[in-house]
């Protein structure tokens, strides 16, 4: 039982490049979330999903897109990376509004 | 003004001390209160979960909610170096449409 996994763990991009972060959970959770964490800012919700095929905007959605084609996977895409998107990205999942279980994070640097 | 305020620290205390971590909030609709612990370069993990007002104890940890003052606390007794981490508070209302609102986290350092 791996819980929540994220790939990749680290990535360096140049401004304007695109990439996709993958989150997978094996707990059969309905809800999945993407957060970014910056120093002094805490966790900020980017997008979330309340079930397969659904997505919704969080607090800071601009510059990101998401997809939830399968219940166990939640993808976060950056179409044209900017230095302001340098951050640590965390995926989480939960059963409805219960406890959120987090992945280990992806450290992204945009040059 | 942020909905949830949390002193970022760092808070440095000697091993064995009682630690008090706090968050204040402005939204009186919040009913569920959580404390997460985050070790360096790891994802947050749930430590304590309380509903409405009152105290909840789990081993060396006690979570306290004072809704009249819009103030929550996490107490750690007999603190250990392994307790060194960042502690984040999070809270939400009863309506399941509402997402968690997070504090910025307090970095705690327990000195041996």
Q: Helicity level of chain B, as a percent range?
A: under 10%
The averaged pLDDT of chain A comes out at 94
From the spread of the alpha carbons, the general shape of chain A counts as globular
Order of helices and strands of chain B: EEEEEEEEEEE
- Give average pLDDT of chain B, whole number: 93
Query: Which secondary-structure class do the elements of chain A indicate?
Result: mainly beta
How is the main sheet of chain B built? 6 strands, mixed
Radius of gyration of chain A: 13 Å
The shape of chain B, in one word, is globular
Describe what this molecule looks like in 3D.
The complex is a heterodimer of chains A (111) and B (112). In chain A, 0% of the residues lie in helices and 52% in strands. Chain A is built from no helices and 11 strands. Chain A has strands at residues 4-7, 10-13, 19-25, 31-38, 42-49, 56-57, 64-67, 73-78, 87-94, 101-102, 106-110. In chain A, a hairpin with a 5-residue loop joins strand 7 (64-67) and strand 8 (73-78). Chain A is globular. Chain B is mainly beta and 112 residues long. Chain B has strands at residues 4-5, 11-14, 19-25, 30-38, 45-51, 54-58, 61-66, 71-76, 85-93, 101-102, 106-111. In chain B, strands 2, 4, 5, 9, 10 and 11 form a 6-stranded mixed beta sheet that branches. In chain B, strands 1-3-8-7-6 form a 5-stranded antiparallel beta sheet, with no helix packed on it. Chain B starts with a strand and ends with a strand. The mean pLDDT of chain B is 93. Chains A and B meet through strand 5 and strand 10 of A and strand 5 and strand 9 of B.
Précis, in short:
The complex is a heterodimer of chains A (111) and B (112). Chain A is mainly β and 111 residues long. Chain A has no helices and 11 strands.
